[in-house]
Task: inverse folding
């Protein structure tokens, strides 16, 4: 199957799952900020790995991920209604910590720059 088609369908699934989670799921266990960061489809479009980024504590992340896993049937049904495919993909949710990791790296770099600046200030005072 064409890589272009797989990519286009993955983008559509990503958009639809984001809408479903944001607008149609009314479960109070869902964290306030849950975003779909990536969707990877198998070449035959039968399996979808959906990566979600969840803003909140570790407990909220785990609870939200479990809620999404339990709602897989509902989400899959909604995708089947929205996208005309021969087979609606089987869905697996995974937690994506890349945004959190990126923020952590940014904080580390910022603190290193501050340390370097304060060290330069100290060395210029000594001269």
Result:
């Amino acid at each position: 199957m064409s890589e272009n088609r797989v990519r286009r369908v993955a983008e559509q699934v990503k958009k639809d799952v984001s809408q479903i989670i944001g607008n149609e799921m009314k479960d109070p266990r869902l964290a306030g900020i849950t975003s779909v960061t990536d969707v990877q489809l198998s070449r035959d479009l039968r399996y979808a790995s959906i990566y979600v980024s969840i803003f909140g504590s570790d407990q909220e992340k785990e609870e939200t991920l479990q809620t999404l896993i339990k709602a897989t049937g509902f989400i899959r049904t909604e995708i089947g209604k929205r996208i005309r495919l021969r087979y609606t993909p089987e869905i697996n949710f995974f937690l994506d910590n890349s945004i959190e990791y990126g923020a952590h790296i940014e904080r580390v770099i910022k603190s290193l720059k501050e340390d370097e600046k304060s060290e330069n200030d100290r060395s210029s005072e000594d001269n």
Q: What stands out?
A: The chain has a mean pLDDT of 88. The first helix runs from residue 3 to 24. Helices lie at 3-24, 58-70, 72-82, 98-126.
